[in-house]
Protein backbone atom coordinates (compact mmCIF):
# COMPACT_ATOMS: atom_id res chain seq x y z
CA UNK A 1 0.00 0.00 0.00
CA UNK A 2 1.23 3.47 -0.93
CA UNK A 3 0.07 6.86 0.11
CA UNK A 4 -0.03 9.52 -2.60
CA UNK A 5 -0.35 13.21 -1.79
CA UNK A 6 -1.64 15.24 -4.72
CA UNK A 7 -1.16 19.00 -4.39
CA UNK A 8 -3.52 21.06 -6.52
CA UNK A 9 -2.92 24.78 -6.97
CA UNK A 10 -4.51 27.41 -9.17
CA UNK A 11 -2.45 28.17 -12.26
CA UNK A 12 -0.35 31.30 -11.93
CA UNK A 13 -2.41 33.10 -14.56
CA UNK A 14 -5.59 32.53 -12.51
CA UNK A 15 -6.50 35.14 -9.91
CA UNK A 16 -7.00 33.59 -6.45
CA UNK A 17 -9.47 35.79 -4.55
CA UNK A 18 -9.35 33.49 -1.50
CA UNK A 19 -5.57 33.87 -1.31
CA UNK A 20 -5.86 37.63 -1.76
CA UNK A 21 -8.40 37.84 1.09
CA UNK A 22 -6.17 35.75 3.38
CA UNK A 23 -3.15 37.87 2.47
CA UNK A 24 -5.08 41.02 3.41
CA UNK A 25 -6.13 39.46 6.72
CA UNK A 26 -2.50 38.50 7.52
CA UNK A 27 -1.43 42.08 6.78
CA UNK A 28 -4.19 43.39 9.06
CA UNK A 29 -2.84 41.12 11.81
CA UNK A 30 0.61 42.61 11.45
CA UNK A 31 2.29 39.99 9.25
CA UNK A 32 3.38 42.56 6.72
CA UNK A 33 6.26 40.41 5.48
CA UNK A 34 3.78 38.21 3.56
CA UNK A 35 4.09 39.05 -0.12
CA UNK A 36 1.64 36.56 -1.58
CA UNK A 37 -0.86 33.89 -0.52
CA UNK A 38 -2.18 31.23 -2.88
CA UNK A 39 -4.66 28.66 -1.60
CA UNK A 40 -4.82 25.18 -3.09
CA UNK A 41 -5.87 21.75 -1.96
CA UNK A 42 -4.32 18.48 -0.87
CA UNK A 43 -5.83 15.21 -2.03
CA UNK A 44 -4.63 12.08 -0.20
CA UNK A 45 -4.93 8.75 -1.99
CA UNK A 46 -4.22 5.30 -0.59
CA UNK A 47 -3.38 2.97 -3.42
CA UNK A 48 -2.92 -0.73 -3.85
CA UNK A 49 -1.17 -2.03 -6.91
CA UNK A 50 2.14 -2.43 -8.62
CA UNK A 51 4.56 0.27 -7.60
CA UNK A 52 5.82 0.71 -11.12
CA UNK A 53 2.36 1.67 -12.31
CA UNK A 54 1.33 4.03 -9.53
CA UNK A 55 3.01 7.08 -10.98
CA UNK A 56 1.43 6.83 -14.41
CA UNK A 57 -1.96 5.81 -13.00
CA UNK A 58 -2.04 8.75 -10.58
CA UNK A 59 -0.95 11.11 -13.33
CA UNK A 60 -3.86 9.83 -15.41
CA UNK A 61 -6.29 10.26 -12.47
CA UNK A 62 -5.14 13.85 -12.09
CA UNK A 63 -5.65 14.60 -15.76
CA UNK A 64 -8.98 12.78 -16.00
CA UNK A 65 -10.69 13.95 -12.83
CA UNK A 66 -8.78 15.29 -9.84
CA UNK A 67 -7.39 18.37 -11.58
CA UNK A 68 -8.89 20.76 -14.11
CA UNK A 69 -5.84 21.79 -16.09
CA UNK A 70 -7.62 24.82 -17.56
CA UNK A 71 -7.33 26.49 -14.15
CA UNK A 72 -5.14 24.24 -11.99
CA UNK A 73 -1.61 22.84 -11.76
CA UNK A 74 -0.65 19.75 -9.79
CA UNK A 75 2.22 17.73 -8.43
CA UNK A 76 2.24 14.60 -6.30
CA UNK A 77 4.51 12.57 -4.07
CA UNK A 78 4.35 8.85 -3.34
CA UNK A 79 5.23 7.51 0.10
CA UNK A 80 4.84 4.30 2.13
CA UNK A 81 1.38 4.12 3.72
CA UNK B 1 -39.59 18.04 -30.70
CA UNK B 2 -38.33 15.74 -27.96
CA UNK B 3 -36.16 17.18 -25.18
CA UNK B 4 -34.19 15.13 -22.65
CA UNK B 5 -33.48 16.80 -19.32
CA UNK B 6 -30.45 15.02 -17.94
CA UNK B 7 -30.70 14.79 -14.16
CA UNK B 8 -27.80 14.14 -11.75
CA UNK B 9 -27.93 13.85 -7.97
CA UNK B 10 -28.09 17.48 -6.83
CA UNK B 11 -29.59 18.89 -10.05
CA UNK B 12 -32.28 21.35 -8.99
CA UNK B 13 -33.27 23.43 -12.02
CA UNK B 14 -34.57 20.38 -13.89
CA UNK B 15 -38.20 21.23 -13.07
CA UNK B 16 -37.78 24.79 -14.38
CA UNK B 17 -36.32 23.39 -17.63
CA UNK B 18 -39.23 20.97 -17.95
CA UNK B 19 -41.72 23.74 -17.35
CA UNK B 20 -40.10 25.94 -20.00
CA UNK B 21 -40.06 23.42 -22.83
CA UNK B 22 -43.08 21.29 -21.91
CA UNK B 23 -45.61 23.52 -20.14
CA UNK B 24 -44.78 26.82 -21.83
CA UNK B 25 -43.67 25.71 -25.30
CA UNK B 26 -45.80 22.56 -25.44
CA UNK B 27 -42.97 20.28 -26.59
CA UNK B 28 -42.28 16.73 -25.48
CA UNK B 29 -39.81 16.57 -22.57
CA UNK B 30 -38.53 13.72 -20.39
CA UNK B 31 -36.48 13.74 -17.23
CA UNK B 32 -33.62 11.30 -17.80
CA UNK B 33 -31.95 10.15 -14.59
CA UNK B 34 -28.25 9.76 -15.33
CA UNK B 35 -28.07 6.05 -14.46
CA UNK B 36 -31.31 5.06 -16.22
CA UNK B 37 -31.21 2.77 -19.23
CA UNK B 38 -32.47 5.73 -21.27
CA UNK B 39 -29.32 7.72 -20.43
CA UNK B 40 -27.10 5.14 -22.12
CA UNK B 41 -28.28 6.16 -25.58
CA UNK B 42 -29.72 9.64 -26.00
CA UNK B 43 -30.03 9.43 -29.78
CA UNK B 44 -33.83 9.15 -29.65
CA UNK B 45 -33.97 12.73 -28.41
CA UNK B 46 -33.73 15.90 -30.50
CA UNK B 47 -32.00 17.99 -27.84
CA UNK B 48 -30.47 17.49 -24.40
CA UNK B 49 -30.78 20.04 -21.60
CA UNK B 50 -28.29 19.83 -18.71
CA UNK B 51 -29.96 21.74 -15.87
CA UNK B 52 -28.45 23.79 -13.07
CA UNK B 53 -28.18 23.02 -9.38
CA UNK B 54 -25.24 21.53 -7.54
CA UNK B 55 -24.57 18.08 -8.96
CA UNK B 56 -22.74 15.86 -6.47
CA UNK B 57 -22.85 18.70 -3.96
CA UNK B 58 -20.28 20.65 -6.03
CA UNK B 59 -17.64 18.36 -4.45
CA UNK B 60 -14.10 18.51 -5.87
CA UNK B 61 -15.10 21.23 -8.39
CA UNK B 62 -18.62 22.14 -9.55
CA UNK B 63 -19.55 19.79 -12.38
CA UNK B 64 -16.45 17.64 -12.03
CA UNK B 65 -17.91 14.49 -10.50
CA UNK B 66 -20.62 14.22 -13.16
CA UNK B 67 -17.75 13.20 -15.43
CA UNK B 68 -17.72 9.86 -13.62
CA UNK B 69 -21.32 9.17 -14.64
CA UNK B 70 -21.95 6.68 -17.42
CA UNK B 71 -24.32 9.20 -18.97
CA UNK B 72 -21.32 11.34 -19.86
CA UNK B 73 -20.21 9.07 -22.71
CA UNK B 74 -23.68 9.16 -24.26
CA UNK B 75 -23.88 12.94 -23.76
CA UNK B 76 -20.55 13.35 -25.58
CA UNK B 77 -21.75 11.06 -28.39
CA UNK B 78 -24.98 13.05 -28.63
CA UNK B 79 -23.04 16.32 -28.88
CA UNK B 80 -20.74 14.81 -31.50
CA UNK B 81 -23.78 13.87 -33.59
CA UNK B 82 -24.45 17.59 -34.03
CA UNK B 83 -27.72 17.78 -32.10
CA UNK B 84 -28.26 20.65 -29.64
CA UNK B 85 -26.98 20.43 -26.07
CA UNK B 86 -27.73 23.28 -23.66
CA UNK B 87 -26.08 23.45 -20.23
CA UNK B 88 -27.23 26.12 -17.81
CA UNK B 89 -25.58 27.06 -14.50
CA UNK B 90 -24.17 23.85 -13.10
CA UNK B 91 -25.01 22.30 -16.47
CA UNK B 92 -22.51 24.74 -18.03
CA UNK B 93 -19.93 23.73 -15.42
CA UNK B 94 -20.53 20.07 -16.29
CA UNK B 95 -20.04 20.78 -20.01
CA UNK B 96 -16.72 22.58 -19.40
CA UNK B 97 -15.51 19.81 -17.10
CA UNK B 98 -16.43 17.26 -19.79
CA UNK B 99 -14.44 19.36 -22.33
CA UNK B 100 -17.52 19.82 -24.48
CA UNK B 101 -16.92 23.55 -24.04
CA UNK B 102 -13.69 25.52 -23.53
CA UNK B 103 -12.74 27.27 -20.29
CA UNK B 104 -13.73 26.67 -16.68
CA UNK B 105 -15.85 28.29 -13.99
CA UNK B 106 -14.10 29.73 -10.95
CA UNK B 107 -15.56 30.99 -7.71
CA UNK B 108 -17.06 34.49 -8.02
CA UNK B 109 -14.46 37.21 -7.61
CA UNK B 110 -16.11 38.44 -4.40
CA UNK B 111 -16.21 34.84 -3.05
CA UNK B 112 -19.95 35.16 -2.48
CA UNK B 113 -23.02 33.46 -3.87
CA UNK B 114 -24.77 36.03 -6.07
CA UNK B 115 -28.27 36.08 -7.48
CA UNK B 116 -30.62 38.51 -9.19
CA UNK B 117 -31.23 39.51 -12.79
CA UNK B 118 -28.56 40.53 -15.25
CA UNK B 119 -28.47 42.20 -18.64
CA UNK B 120 -26.84 40.07 -21.30
CA UNK B 121 -25.67 41.33 -24.65
CA UNK B 122 -26.26 38.92 -27.55
CA UNK B 123 -22.87 38.57 -29.26
CA UNK B 124 -23.83 35.92 -31.79
CA UNK B 125 -27.42 35.93 -33.03
CA UNK B 126 -26.69 33.37 -35.76
CA UNK B 127 -26.41 30.30 -33.59
CA UNK B 128 -28.87 27.47 -33.15
CA UNK B 129 -29.69 28.85 -29.69
CA UNK B 130 -29.87 32.57 -30.45
CA UNK B 131 -31.52 32.97 -33.88
CA UNK B 132 -34.60 34.57 -32.29
CA UNK B 133 -32.50 37.39 -30.82
CA UNK B 134 -31.14 40.48 -32.53
CA UNK B 135 -27.39 40.87 -32.83
CA UNK B 136 -26.20 43.18 -30.03
CA UNK B 137 -29.59 43.12 -28.27
CA UNK B 138 -29.65 43.38 -24.46
CA UNK B 139 -31.80 40.77 -22.74
CA UNK B 140 -32.73 40.36 -19.07
CA UNK B 141 -32.07 36.95 -17.53
CA UNK B 142 -31.99 35.79 -13.88
CA UNK B 143 -28.86 34.26 -12.38
CA UNK B 144 -27.92 32.50 -9.13
CA UNK B 145 -24.42 31.10 -8.66
CA UNK B 146 -21.25 30.99 -6.61
CA UNK B 147 -19.02 29.64 -9.37
CA UNK B 148 -19.99 32.00 -12.17
CA UNK B 149 -16.57 33.44 -12.90
CA UNK B 150 -15.76 32.18 -16.39
CA UNK B 151 -12.06 31.72 -17.05
CA UNK B 152 -10.33 30.95 -20.29
CA UNK B 153 -6.69 31.52 -21.31
CA UNK B 154 -5.80 34.13 -23.90
CA UNK B 155 -4.90 31.69 -26.63
CA UNK B 156 -8.21 29.82 -26.37
CA UNK B 157 -10.08 33.11 -26.12
CA UNK B 158 -8.57 34.26 -29.43
CA UNK B 159 -9.70 30.98 -31.01
CA UNK B 160 -13.19 31.39 -29.58
CA UNK B 161 -13.46 34.91 -30.98
CA UNK B 162 -12.26 33.78 -34.39
CA UNK B 163 -14.92 31.04 -34.39
CA UNK B 164 -17.70 33.32 -33.10
CA UNK B 165 -18.14 31.10 -30.02
CA UNK B 166 -19.11 33.82 -27.57
CA UNK B 167 -22.91 33.79 -27.46
CA UNK B 168 -23.56 36.23 -24.61
CA UNK B 169 -21.58 38.73 -22.54
CA UNK B 170 -22.67 40.56 -19.41
CA UNK B 171 -23.81 44.09 -20.23
CA UNK B 172 -23.77 45.09 -16.54
CA UNK B 173 -21.52 44.49 -13.53
CA UNK B 174 -22.72 40.95 -12.76
CA UNK B 175 -19.83 39.21 -14.55
CA UNK B 176 -18.22 38.13 -11.22
CA UNK B 177 -14.78 38.46 -12.79
CA UNK B 178 -15.47 36.49 -15.98
CA UNK B 179 -12.87 36.78 -18.74
CA UNK B 180 -14.07 39.44 -21.23
CA UNK B 181 -17.41 39.50 -19.33
CA UNK B 182 -18.36 36.23 -21.05
CA UNK B 183 -21.72 34.78 -19.94
CA UNK B 184 -22.42 32.12 -22.58
CA UNK B 185 -20.17 30.00 -24.76
CA UNK B 186 -20.68 27.86 -27.87
CA UNK B 187 -18.53 24.97 -29.00
CA UNK B 188 -16.72 25.26 -32.34
CA UNK B 189 -19.47 23.43 -34.18
CA UNK B 190 -22.15 25.67 -32.63
CA UNK B 191 -24.40 22.88 -31.35
CA UNK B 192 -23.41 23.05 -27.67
CA UNK B 193 -24.17 26.15 -25.58
CA UNK B 194 -23.28 26.70 -21.94
CA UNK B 195 -24.27 29.74 -19.92
CA UNK B 196 -24.34 30.73 -16.25
CA UNK B 197 -27.54 32.88 -16.34
CA UNK B 198 -30.79 30.90 -16.30
CA UNK B 199 -33.00 31.42 -19.39
CA UNK B 200 -35.54 28.85 -18.15
CA UNK B 201 -36.41 31.26 -15.33
CA UNK B 202 -37.46 33.96 -17.81
CA UNK B 203 -40.13 32.28 -19.93
CA UNK B 204 -43.46 33.61 -18.59
CA UNK B 205 -44.77 37.07 -17.68
CA UNK B 206 -45.59 35.79 -14.21
CA UNK B 207 -41.87 35.15 -13.62
CA UNK B 208 -41.13 38.82 -14.32
CA UNK B 209 -39.12 38.30 -17.50
CA UNK B 210 -39.66 36.54 -20.81
CA UNK B 211 -36.38 37.04 -22.68
CA UNK B 212 -35.26 33.46 -22.00
CA UNK B 213 -38.13 31.99 -23.97
CA UNK B 214 -36.62 33.00 -27.31
CA UNK B 215 -33.58 30.84 -26.61
CA UNK B 216 -35.77 27.74 -26.50
CA UNK B 217 -37.79 28.99 -29.50
CA UNK B 218 -34.53 29.35 -31.42
CA UNK B 219 -33.76 25.66 -30.84
CA UNK B 220 -37.24 24.71 -32.11
CA UNK B 221 -36.87 26.89 -35.18
CA UNK B 222 -33.60 25.30 -36.22
CA UNK B 223 -34.45 21.70 -35.44
CA UNK B 224 -37.98 21.52 -36.85
Automatic annotation (TrEMBL), chain A:
GO molecular function: ATP binding; phosphoribosylformylglycinamidine synthase activity
Pathway(s) the chain acts in: Purine metabolism; IMP biosynthesis via de novo pathway; 5-amino-1-(5-phospho-D-ribosyl)imidazole from N(2)-formyl-N(1)-(5-phospho-D-ribosyl)glycinamide: step 1/2
Signal sequence segment: none
GO CC aspect terms: cytoplasm
Pfam families per record: PurS
Class of the enzyme per the UniProt entry, highest EC level: ligase
InterPro entries for the chain: PurS (IPR003850), PurS-like_sf (IPR036604)
GO biological process, one term: 'de novo' IMP biosynthetic process
Keyword Mitochondrion: no
Keywords: ATP-binding, Cytoplasm, Ligase, Nucleotide-binding, Purine biosynthesis
Major location (coarse): cytoplasm
Catalytic reactions of this protein: N(2)-formyl-N(1)-(5-phospho-beta-D-ribosyl)glycinamide + L-glutamine + ATP + H2O = 2-formamido-N(1)-(5-O-phospho-beta-D-ribosyl)acetamidine + L-glutamate + ADP + phosphate + H(+)
Enzyme Commission (EC) number: 6.3.5.3
SUPFAM superfamilies for this protein: PurS-like
Protein's cellular compartments: Cytoplasm
Family membership: Belongs to the PurS family.
Role: Part of the phosphoribosylformylglycinamidine synthase complex involved in the purines biosynthetic pathway. Catalyzes the ATP-dependent conversion of formylglycinamide ribonucleotide (FGAR) and glutamine to yield formylglycinamidine ribonucleotide (FGAM) and glutamate. The FGAM synthase complex is composed of three subunits. PurQ produces an ammonia molecule by converting glutamine to glutamate. PurL transfers the ammonia molecule to FGAR to form FGAM in an ATP-dependent manner.
The protein's assembly and partners: Part of the FGAM synthase complex composed of 1 PurL, 1 PurQ and 2 PurS subunits.
Protein's UniProt name: Phosphoribosylformylglycinamidine synthase subunit PurS
From TrEMBL, chain B:
Location(s) in or outside the cell: Cytoplasm
MF GO annotations: ATP binding; glutaminase activity; phosphoribosylformylglycinamidine synthase activity
Record-level GO cellular component terms: cytoplasm
Cited PROSITE patterns: GATASE_TYPE_1 (PS51273)
Predominant location category: cytoplasm
Active site: 200
Pfam families the UniProt entry points to: GATase_5
HAMAP family reported in the protein's UniProt record: PurQ (MF_00421)
Protein function: Part of the phosphoribosylformylglycinamidine synthase complex involved in the purines biosynthetic pathway. Catalyzes the ATP-dependent conversion of formylglycinamide ribonucleotide (FGAR) and glutamine to yield formylglycinamidine ribonucleotide (FGAM) and glutamate. The FGAM synthase complex is composed of three subunits. PurQ produces an ammonia molecule by converting glutamine to glutamate. PurL transfers the ammonia molecule to FGAR to form FGAM in an ATP-dependent manner.
Name recorded for this polypeptide: Phosphoribosylformylglycinamidine synthase subunit PurQ
The organism of origin for this protein: Sporosarcina pasteurii
